[in-house]
Design a protein that fits this description.
Blueprint: H1 2-9, E1 15-16, H2 17-26, H3 35-39, H4 49-64, E2 67-77, E3 80-89, H5 91-99
Antiparallel strand pairs: 1-3, 2-3
Amino acid sequence: MIDRILAIEADGADHPGVEIDRQLAVAARELGYTDADLSTSVAKNGRTAFANEGDWAKATMTEEGWHVIVGTLAYVERGVRRECNIYRITPNGEARRRRG
């Protein structure tokens, strides 16, 4: 999942977390996730197992310095106002992406 996010960010543009999540969802089966992973909610936060894994990957990338948070974005999804971070790949992230 981290490699896929690095590929999304490789263009050097800023990418909101919601955009990254949507692109990951399109590629979920390629990444080895099942329909259950995509639809089963985790009672604690109401997000799916797949979404939680995406959040873990983005957090790990931030901790490792592979991308940085450059802002936040407010958006509406299914009638609910939400916020997400906006990310930008770093030189360290680009080097990791090239190593694969």
